[in-house]
Amino acid sequence: MGNYIIGIDLGGTNLKAGIVDTDGKILHRLSTKTNSHADSQIISNQILLLIAEIIQGARIKESDMIGVGLGSPGLVDKRGETVLFSPNLPRWRNIPIKRIVAERFSKPCVLENDANAAAWGEKWAGAGKEVRSLVMLTLGTGIGGGIVIDNKLWRGASNVAAEIGHMVIQMDGPQCNCGNRGCVEVYASATGMVRRFKEVLKSGKFSSLKISDEITARMISDAAFQGDRASLDIIEETGRYLGIALINIMHILNPEMIVLAGGMIGSGELLMNPIRQVTQRGAFEASYKDTKIVFSQLGNDAGIIGAAGCLLTELEISV
Q1: Do domains 4-115+300-314 and 127-296 have the same CATH topology?
Q2: pLDDT tens per residue across span 114-150
Q3: How many CB atoms lie within 10 A of CB 268?
Q4: What is the 3-state secondary structure (H, E, C) of 86-126?
Q5: Any idea where the domains of the chain sit in the sequence?
Q6: Rounded to an integer, what distance in angstroms lies between the CA atom of residue 128 and that of residue 295?
Q7: Rounded distance between C-alpha atoms, residue 196 and residue 192, angstroms
Q8: Which CATH class is domain 4-115+300-314?
Q9: Which chain regions cross the lipid bilayer (predicted)?
Q10: What are phi and psi of 88, to 5 degrees?
Q11: How far is CA 295 from the centre of its chain?
Q12: Is the pTM of this model over 0.85?
């Protein structure tokens, strides 16, 4: 048995890889832009190439490599072998990526939903080390979710549980990439926040950012820290939408912890304050009191570390 796992985190924007040890530490990393609108073969080849590059770059022996943990957005089949559908990677469908990776490198591979992997990363090596139950939301291009109950990932009857981003909070809201209307992802993902911000600018509200700019969630956050009123308002509104989702989570699952991760947590307390205000006002007191809402400790590394940890769990190697 080797000493290292390759963790892969496939996102709608970036494809990231890391060499992870059995304590959950990343020793070497690489990333590249995801060719998100490419066909499935191109994305598969991107993954294979990145794995080969990180093995070569880290100068590890093949015998030192336990295997590959792969976190992918979207729905994974019951057997954990095939990516069925991913709203933010429209042509990434029915891909037997577990078999493709395992055959290419002659090593065990585990395939997990990316947000499940990130949730397991926080449970194994991050904010949730001391709790038995947590729910994680990954706030990026879309919104993913992962649930840990009694120290085990909860995947549901069809392996598609915790699609929190597709919780409908407004039945007649804008259409989501999943096909439904009014999903929380439409309002509170980075993509949704940028869309709503542009609508505000079109309505004539003043901002230091201009509608002609290539606006990103990071730009909105930076402008908010500089006191831009329109940016502050849109982040506060985003926090309120997230708060509604968290109330539902508290009332259904009553977890010990809810972890927020992804690029949007860079807004810090500007985002967290309205989340806490809405949940304190709307959740049952017992639910709110006993559920900690925290930011990820592992940050953008949660998916890589969690994917690696999922492989160790699959192989029944103690983590």
Answers
A1: yes
A2: 999 999 999 999 999 999 999 999 998 889 899 999 9
A3: 13
A4: CCCCCCCCCECHHHHHHHHHCCCEEEEEHHHHHHHHHHHHC
A5: 4-115+300-314, 127-296
A6: 11
A7: 6
A8: alpha beta
A9: none
A10: -95, 0
A11: 13
A12: yes
